[in-house]
Amino acid sequence: MKTLVVCNQKGGVGKSAVSTLLTHYLAHKGHRVLAIDLDHQGNLTTPLVQSGRLAVAGITSDALMTGPLAALPDRPQVLVPSGRALLGLERQPAQHTPLARQFRDFLAKVDRSFDVCIVDTNPNPDIRVISALASADFALSPIQLNQEAMDGVAGLLNHERVGLRKIKAVLNPKLTLIGLLPTLVEPTPYQRANFVQVVQRYHALLIRLGAGPGAFASIPRRSCIAEAQSEGAVLWEMKKTAARDTWHEIEPSLARIAAFVNGTKTVLEANHATAP
């Protein structure tokens, strides 16, 4: 099983929507998928439960760090939902190392039952994010095309607690950054200018789709994506023409990310940095 953590220290960048899309896409492609929601807000839990496509575990995700390693439903697609007790984990500093170890032990226990694990994280730089990244194979960071979000990339890489470089150097040498994924992208002059800045500053961290100068993975701002998220719908199954058009627009980006995770393409082959 390969574990992908979707992370960013800024909220509102579309982490949960990306996690939801990837979960449905990988399941659609025949992969056994485990989805874990480590954000107490439950923005991954709600649409996946509403979709009815995944079996819901009888425990919440905080129990993966604090309780006995409970068995999951014997189904090919399973969700471990969010729980309010996640908020209390950071307030137990003496237990942080055991919490992280328990999460790693859980992933090892279910390793043969799934092909891919998608972990949606909270924006706070706390023990939940550390535990996820310390056990992950890959990280993916959705970002918005605004100056604040772009400036936050330095924190994503270099934060003293949860920076990807720190986690890789100290806790998890196998951790690989797939890349930055611009989200909520709009065809406005302002966003086009910001996209140019992102390419100039972080081109090695973007996910290339082709040889063209702007051929990088991204997720557009479309009302049908938000609608699918709120209704628990699968985007490409929605009957609206706008939803089908949007799916054709974003499918290449999801396919490229999935190719990294399932091992059919390496980050190095796509001319990315293999380490954050």
UniProtKB/TrEMBL annotation:
Gene3D superfamilies: P-loop containing nucleotide triphosphate hydrolases. Pfam families: AAA_31. Residues 1-175 form the AAA domain. It comes from the Bacteria. This is ParA family protein. It comes from Piscinibacter koreensis. The lineage of its organism: Bacteria, Pseudomonadati, Pseudomonadota, Betaproteobacteria, Burkholderiales.
